[in-house]
Design the sequence.
């Protein structure tokens, strides 16, 4: 695009841009991320190790879940229809099984708020393969205004950018899986979890850059007084040029690069050494606050943000993570995946199962002990005729899976 400069103003096709504003925005963009945009969300994930950790923990937790048939009371169901449905749920394409596919779906959904799935018709058979399309490659198109039953805007087609060109797919070929916890201003699902995290993420990136430069370049070395002995000397302009010359000669100081190493004042002749301790600037506390804010949005217990977590507390933290975050959010996710696979409505539901996890096995062991104690407690009353069999069963029912 062509442009001319007129009194410090870049005049181009899109109007006027102040040069100083342009330069300041370029400098600040290194550590300031607008997480309300898809580009900003991608940048936040790429640059912030804390965001990567939060996403990785969620993705791993989702991919560790199994799918199983359960009745209204939460009992597992076993029959030939369940076997057929579970086999169907295990394969999504020729490369990915259920866990790997679920892994990708959760990664896209929690970063961008929505995951796009390409429903690809297989040639010659009445079947489909399903592929997760990266958000960076797909663009919904709305040639007409239409909504679905949830009053959500419905795309009429989608463009996928490929190395060979743009592939246009119809609305029946793309399935949208939206993050089921965050809701946008219109009361609809699909808001990225990073949407409200621009400030803590930008803080982390700023602290990271400052810390790196402090280590590489060091802080201010000290303060040098020029020897002014009274108010008249301090206020006189002749020392200003000398001050500038001294600063340039002493090169550069400060917490960031391209700044002077020594501070020169007009005061009494002296030299005061300076140190730049990271602790004094409260950077560790700021990092922890930002980390906790990010982890909370992703549903991670605060204990995960502590570097020296005690080993005994980890199983309880993981259990809290699964029971308080993953299971409630995976339940509607699994319901969507079952629907996508075309499995008909049954007398049971397919829900996330975590009974194979180590901390759950410990809970089963504790539950078995509690059940035995409850049985031992009601048996004497049953033998003495105080309680009936039905009454005894009602008492121990909470201890039975």
Sequence:
């Amino acid at each position: 695009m062509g442009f001319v400069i007129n009194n410090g103003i870049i005049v181009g096709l899109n109007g006027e841009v102040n040069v100083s504003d342009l330069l300041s925005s370029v400098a600040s963009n290194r550590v300031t991320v607008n997480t309300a945009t898809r580009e900003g969300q991608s940048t936040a994930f790429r640059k912030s190790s804390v965001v990567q950790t939060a996403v990785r923990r969620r993705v791993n937790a989702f991919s560790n879940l199994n799918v199983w048939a359960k009745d209204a009371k939460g009992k597992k169901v076993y029959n030939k229809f369940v076997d057929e449905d579970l086999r169907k749920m295990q394969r999504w394409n020729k490369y990915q099984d259920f866990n790997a596919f679920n892994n990708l779906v959760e990664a896209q959904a929690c970063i961008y708020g929505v995951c796009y799935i390409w429903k690809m018709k297989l040639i010659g058979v009445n079947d489909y393969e399903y592929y997760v399309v990266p958000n960076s490659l797909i663009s919904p198109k709305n040639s007409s205004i239409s909504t679905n039953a949830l009053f959500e805007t419905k795309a009429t087609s989608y463009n996928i950018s490929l190395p060979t060109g743009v592939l246009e797919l119809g609305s029946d070929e793309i399935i949208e899986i939206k993050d089921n916890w965050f809701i946008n201003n219109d009361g609809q699902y699909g808001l990225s979890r990073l949407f409200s995290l621009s400030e803590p993420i930008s803080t982390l990136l700023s602290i990271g850059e400052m810390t790196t430069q402090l280590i590489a370049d060091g802080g201010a070395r000290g303060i040098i007084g020029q020897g002014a002995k009274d108010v008249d000397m301090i206020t006189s302009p002749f020392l200003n040029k000398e001050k500038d010359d001294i600063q340039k000669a002493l090169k550069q100081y400060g917490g960031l690069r391209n700044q002077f190493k020594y501070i020169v004042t007009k005061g009494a002749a002296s030299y005061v050494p300076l140190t730049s301790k990271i602790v004094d600037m409260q950077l560790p506390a700021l990092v922890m606050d930002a980390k906790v804010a990010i982890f909370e949005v992703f549903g991670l217990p605060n204990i995960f943000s502590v570097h020296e977590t005690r080993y005994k507390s980890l199983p309880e933290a993981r259990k809290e993570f699964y029971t308080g975050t993953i299971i409630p959010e995976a339940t509607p996710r699994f319901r969507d995946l079952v629907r996508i696979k075309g499995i008909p409505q049954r007398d049971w539901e397919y829900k996330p199962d975590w009974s194979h996890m180590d901390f759950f096995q410990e809970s089963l062991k504790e539950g078995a002990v509690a059940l035995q104690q409850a049985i031992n407690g009601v048996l004497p009353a049953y033998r003495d005729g105080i309680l009936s069999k039905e009454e005894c069963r009602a008492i121990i029912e909470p201890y039975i899976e």
Observations:
- The two ends are 69 Å apart (CA to CA).
- The mean pLDDT is 76.
